[in-house]
Amino acid sequence: MIEEKFDAIVVGAGMSGNAAAYTLASRGLKVLQLERGEYAGSKNVQGAIMYASMLEKIIPDFREDAPLERHLVEQRFWMMDDTSHTGMHYRSDDFNEERPNRYTIIRAQFDKWFSRKVKQAGATVLCETTVTELIRNTEGRVIGVKVDRAGGAIFADVVVLAEGVNGLLGTRAGFRETPKAESVALAVKEMHFLPEEVIAQRFGLSGNEGCVIEAAGTFSQGMTGLAFLYTNRESISIGVGCLVSDYARTMESPYALLEQFKNHPSVRPLLKDTEVKEYAAHLIPEGGYKAIPQLYGDGWVVVGDAAQLNNAVHREGSNLAMTSGRIAAEAIFQVKSRRDPMTAENLRLYKTMLDESFVIKDLKKHKDMPALLHTNSQNFFMTYPQLMSAAAQNFVRVDGTPKIEKEKATLSSIVKARSRFGMVSDAVRLAFAWR
Amino acid sequence: MTVAVTDVRVEDKLFQNRYLVDTGRPHIKVRPHDTPSANLLALTRVCPAKCYEQNDNGQVEISADGCMECGTCRVLCEATGEIEWDYPRGGFGVLFKFG
Q1: A263 touches chain B (CB under 8 A)
Q2: Which residues numbered 185-214 in A keep a CB inside 8 Å of some CB on B?
Q3: What b-and-e string marks burial along A325-361, b requiring 16 or more CB atoms within 10 Å of the CB?
């Protein structure tokens, strides 16, 4: 059907694919982007928080027309037991700046905007088209793709695999393994709608200010998991994510956990009278540095979630995706400019450049965190939240018990639950994994 | 605090979503079996769209119409060959309005 040959084919129109396609097209390369959804964004799910500086590197004036919901001025971290939360809140007027640092976004809308930019930059974008297979020559080099449309073989010098966490092409071609149950989290999420002014009032916000709550605790039933609540302009995104391996072991249901969180006495009032308009589920790469697969080969590179480029500790994904897409495109552009072939040897430049960026440096820094949190989930997500709550309650409740006895009781409950050695060992391992 | 899990109706949640079902061409298939493995059985509880159910003979069956294409079942059961996982044809499947 498509006779012409392209400089590059980008598979997928999420954050990494759009960043790659935009960067390639705006440097004058002939780009075809293929997306299986009805429109860019229709298969994509994220919380979602978007970090401005990574998008600025791609589209500097994005604030002029991108669909941004609220800029974040307040972050709440909650540790929860069944009836309480202990929180650390950070709110700063410094975030009310001319070029805010973080925004909440709604992915389907944001991705449509990004896709328009890709088209304006000169790329051909074909939606409702599933890539079924990579075409390789006799030497094994990727030379194009097959799609599920009539006559569907399309050729290009290089294929950018931006196919997402559940991408089939790269795994079927043997470029990387299917993600392991221990290195992906399953997140479920609902969109709750409320009038703009009710959200402002409920969360103490004015104008386009936004607030984020991120919580860990007993609602995850001892599994490694996190809940989130993000304020959009006139909706709230709320969800829960836990490791797939933990789900398989405990046989808990994700929707039951979400209900548990929504009905927590600290959360329920925030959702009063909302209208739910969507329920979504998605996998999140959690394996960190050690789960990153081979990133390039003869005629191909892999970017974004498909390459497990996600910082679970800092809950950053789309900025790593965007950056990897941009850097892959810049590397391809350099190879192309030198009129060199798109061999593995030449595309290695992508990895070299990515290694120098915050993407790999951050993931490397926290390379031991996933293993620590995943193997000690009962302590970090059940025991400590309970102890924290008990200690806080003991501190604030005034009932005539002498303070010295209260403090002794708190300390002994902690030692009893986790032992001095256990706590010291958790602290030491956490410190080592973090540094 | 306990929430009765039986009160959660996934069907009601999925009803909010938009789908274009490719009738007669399910994108996930379960291999015929006598007894399901632990992971396959877990899907009856872990699948966020509750696509997997156990029949009267104890075998696990799938109805993929409400599938949100997250890939959890693929991660748990594709390697053993218990399920086959493909993308829906272009344009079909779940179509997120918000994502």
Answers
A1: yes
A2: 186, 188, 190-191
A3: bbbbbbbbbebbeeeeebbeebbbbbbebbeeebbbe
Q: Which of A311, A8, A271 is nearest to A143 (CA)?
A: A8
Domain assignment present for residue B60? The answer is yes
- Mutation for testing the A interface, residue in B16, B44, B70 having most A CBs under 10 Å: B70
Interface contact B99-A45, CB threshold 8 A: yes
- A168, A171, A255, A271: best mutation site toward chain B, by most B Cβ within 10 Å? A255
Residues A276 and A215 in one domain: yes
In a domain, A90, yes or no: no
Domains contained in chain A, number: 3
Report how many domains make up chain B. Answer: 1
Residue A255 lies in a domain: yes
A202 and A260 assigned to the same domain: yes
Same-domain status, A258 and A380: no
Whole-angstrom distance, CA of residue A423 vs CA of residue A346 = 49
Q: Is residue A158 part of a domain?
A: yes
| Inside any domain, residue B95 | no
Instruction: Say yes or no for a CB contact (<8 Å) between B95 and A127.
Output: no
Does any domain span residue B23?
yes
Q: Are A290 and A308 in contact (CB under 8 A)?
A: no
Strand A296-297, strand A209-217: pairing: unpaired
* Residue B20 belongs to domain spanning: 5-90
Of A259, A285, A311, the position where a domain reaches its end is A285
CA neighbor of A16 nearest in space, from A302, A253, A251, A228: A302
DSSP code of residue A151 = T
The verdict on residue B44 lying in a domain is yes
Shortest Cα distance, chain A CAs vs residue B48, angstroms: 6
Our CA dihedral for A304, A309, A315, A318, rounded to 10 degrees, sits at -20
Q: Which candidate from A43, A178, A276 shows the least CB-CB separation from B75?
A: A178
Partners of B74 on chain A (C-beta within 8 Å) are 166, 178
Q: Is residue A57 part of a domain?
A: yes
pTM of the model: 0.94
Instruction: Per residue of chain A (435 residues), give pLDDT as tens.
Output: 556 899 999 999 999 999 999 999 999 999 999 999 999 999 999 999 999 999 999 999 999 999 999 999 999 999 999 999 999 999 999 999 999 999 999 999 999 999 999 999 999 999 999 999 999 999 999 999 999 988 789 999 999 999 999 999 999 999 999 999 999 999 999 999 999 999 999 999 999 999 999 999 999 999 989 999 999 999 999 999 999 999 999 999 999 999 999 999 999 999 999 999 999 999 999 999 999 999 999 999 999 999 999 998 888 999 999 999 999 999 999 999 999 999 999 999 999 999 999 999 999 999 988 888 887 788 888 888 888 888 889 888 888 889 899 889 888 888 888 888 888 888 888 888 877
Q: A255, A240 in Cβ contact below 8 A? A: no
> Where in the sequence is the domain holding A138, given as residue range(s)?
6-67+105-177+293-366
Mutation to test the B interface, candidates A33, A146, A161, A166, most B Cβ within 10 Å:
A166
The answer on A155 and A21 residing in a single domain is: yes
Residue in A with minimal Cα distance to B3: A260
The CATH code of the domain that includes B42 is: 3.30.70.20
CA closest to A283 among chain B residues? B70
A127 and B91: CB-CB below 8 Å? Answer: yes
The H-or-E segment that residue B67 falls in is none
